[in-house]
Amino acid sequence: xxxxxxxxxxxxxxxxxxxxxxxxxxxxxxxxxxxxxxxxxxxxxxxxxxxxxxxxxxxxxxxxxxxxxxxxxxxxxxxxxxxxxxxxxxxxxxxxxxxxxxxxxxxxxxxxxxxxxxxxxxxxxxxxxxxxxxxxxxxxxxxxxxxxxxxxxxxxxxxxxxxxxxxxxxxxxxxxxxxxxxxxxxxxxxxxxxxxxxxxxxxxxxxxxxxxxxxxxxxxxxxxxxxxxxxxxxxxxxxxxxxxxxxxxxxxxxxxxxxxxxxxxxxxxxxxxxxxxxxxxxxxxxxxxxxxxxxxxxxxxxxxxxxxxxxxxxxxxxxxxxxxxxxxxxxxxxxxxxxxxxxxxxxxxxxxxxxxxxxxxxxxxxxxxxxxxxxxxxxxxxxxxxxxxxxxxxxxxxxxxxxxxxxxxxxxxxxxxxxxxxxxxxxxxxxxxxxxxxxxxxxxxxxxxxxxxxxxxxxxxxxxxxxxxxxxxxxxxxxxxxxxxxxxxxxxxxxxxxxxxxxxxxxxxxxxxxxxxxxxxxxxxxxxxxxxxxxxxxxxxxxxxxxxxxxxxxxxxxxxxxxxxxxxxxxxxxxxxxxxxxxxxxxxxxxxxxxxxxxxxxxxxxxxxxxxxxxxxxxxxxxxxxxxxxxxxxxxxxxxxxxxxxxxxxxxxxxxxxxxxxxxxxxxxxxxxxxxxxxxxxxxxxxxxxxxxxxxxxxxxxxxxxxxxxxxxxxxxxxxxxxxxxxxxxxxxxxxxxxxxxxxxxxxxxxxxxxxxxxxxxxxxxxxxxxxxxxxxxxxxxxxxxxxxxxxxxxxxxxxxx
Length: 802
What we know:
Blueprint: H1 12-22, H2 24-41, H3 51-58, H4 64-83, H5 93-107, H6 118-121, H7 128-146, H8 152-181, H9 190-208, E1 211-212, E2 215-216, H10 217-252, H11 259-272, H12 278-296, H13 302-316, H14 320-330, H15 337-375, H16 379-390, H17 397-403, H18 405-422, H19 434-437, H20 441-491, E3 493-496, H21 498-510, E4 517-523, E5 528-534, H22 536-539, H23 544-555, E6 563-570, E7 576-585, E8 590-599, E9 609-615, E10 620-627, H24 633-651, H25 656-669, E11 679-685, E12 690-696, E13 701-705, E14 708-712, E15 728-733, E16 739-743, H26 753-760, H27 768-782, E17 791-800
Antiparallel strand pairs: 1-2, 3-4, 4-5, 5-7, 6-7, 8-17, 9-10, 10-11, 11-12, 12-15, 13-14, 13-16, 16-17
Helix pairs in contact: 2-3, 2-4, 2-9, 3-4, 3-5, 3-7, 3-8, 4-5, 5-7, 7-8, 8-9, 9-10, 10-11, 10-13, 11-12, 12-13, 15-20, 16-20, 17-18, 20-25, 24-25
């Protein structure tokens, strides 16, 4: 069975996205123009506006022209607006500074051949952008001063404005570099983090004087930032974000400094209510911000109230995937250096151990095969030894082995099939010409028989040794795959949620739950997994439904009911302690419904088939079906052993291929008798609906998707026959109402078409157990060969969670 990739027609959404991607450079240019325009409009205290010049000095060379165009346009608009009636006058010097900086950067543009002429003037690269911004801002300011009467205040302000432009250029340079790395805010270096915060404040300042209907876009952005920080990080983040954003707004609207306290207190209040859900947190922010605005802010107050309402509603209605992206990309917390280092070392050690075991298995197998070939005998050696012992003392040896060598060899070639068939030869088995002239045929036959018996004994021993050796090397390979799978699973853990662990521990202590340990982590898909250990007698008293609801509220994540597992934990003293581990995982998109039915072969008390259905701690639903060789007790032992081992290994996180290797080795060494069983596994990821099918000698699996039935077939060998056994693997995505039906070979003795028809016409909301019973009983009645066999039918239906 081979996997197949189906190609589908490209839809209009894909075509639209492809068109946007084709024009990505143009879209980026437009965004840089808008960004430069907004920054160019920004000003502080209604007197200075150095941001456009700083941005042109810091922006990457590839985006310089569109940014400069936008910044110049914003600066010109700012000067025109002020001349049309503003209380303060912004001269054209800001647009001139943008032009000067752009011209200098274009003239001294770095080239591939020269490495950049600008580097000759400014060898210290981090200082290039600040120095250029300082000089570019100072030159037009001095020109304005020379054209007007001398004023000390104007001189001080001009130099201060130039210094501020250089500082802003430095922070912008570091911020743009940090953004290009794609890191979260709290994984940046301290200097980069401060630069990003100041750059964000600069953007708020630039947008604060852009209003629509009295609503300021800068104040609105500041409110959203404060509420998001409070929602993610609690009162500490909310208060700090409120102070930073409030300061930026106050600087832009100087002398209205009272908004600094309004944002800070509103952020603190929102952080206090962050554990109660998004709506309550947003409501707390809106009420606090609105009340403080009415009390302290100067008229008009209504725009501030509108901004608080818009912020609260917008954040509360943000889609969950957007909030998840913000938490994982923007507000991602760094791992402790020690924890990250230990994790990396552990992964490297696991990979090294896995590779070493694979090399041991390969080397052992290769060396043993060469030694076997060197030590193993052959019939030619048996004949040579018999000839040396008998014919060398015969007077006819010259005639037989020199004059008539070909005829003599033909006689011995004739003995080979007789020897293989009967296990021995006698004097009468020698054909002409030796039958006519050889007088030592009895001695030759005895020597040949003795040598052949010794050869067969060696071959039998070599086969047994090779079987044991193959089992051992197969176990090495299985252990290597096991370690490799553990390494991949550890790599799938994206972060350890220390803050969530603290919140859960606080809840458990407040609820008087005595726990042993709590752990929480996220995987690469940003799903949360929580596990906690309790003493067995305490775990028996827990109300799991109530605990699940409360932990979901504490963690702001909807969990499924936990899985209970008994674990033996090794203490530091070396003793073992038994605990009950509760494993919580986020509620999946789908849920699995299982059903099964069995028929025992007549004349036997036990079924030779075994099955197990379960959902592991990663919300993957499994059905494992095994058919032992024959019927009765021996087959039941093999199949139940196979299913039990596979369930334990898979539930422990062992990969399917590694689990197959280990189970195959166990079947090979279980007893001296022949032992084999088929393996059929279906695994469905309940988060995505992706289903995988693993087969080793198993009967077809019936799959119904979108009310149509298909087959998943296998041509591989069962486990327990050969040392080298592999799964045949295939995959498909399931949707709401889709169904998988697995059967043993007893159900397919009279074909598979009728089963496909039954599965295809089964109602979407029908009784799954009745379907399994119907297929099992019908399969038994349809047999017309006067032979009975064990029959097992397992079914799994995927349903979307309401």
